[in-house]
Amino acid sequence: MNLFETYSARVAAALAALAERGALPAGLDLGRVVVEPTKDPAHGDLATNAAMVLAKEAGTNPRALAALLIEELAKDAEIVKAEVAGPGFINLTLQPSVFTAILKEAVLRGLDYGRGAPKPQPRINVEYVSANPTGPMHVGHGRGAVFGDALANVLAFAGHDVTREYYINDAGAQVDVLARSAFLRYREALGETISIPEGLYPGDYLVSVGTSLAKAHGEALLAKPEAEWLPLVRQAAIDGMMAMIRDDLAALGVVHKVFFSERSLQNEGGAAGTIVQDGVARLEATSTGADSAVHQLSKLVEEAQGSKAPIQRLVDQVAAVFVPVVILLAALTLLGWLAAGAGHERRQGLLVEAHVRSFRVWPALLGRPLPRFVLVNAGLTRQ
Question: Domains (ranges, CATH) in the chain?
Answer without folding.
Answer: 3-94 (3.30.1360.70), 173-261 (no CATH), 311-377 (no CATH)
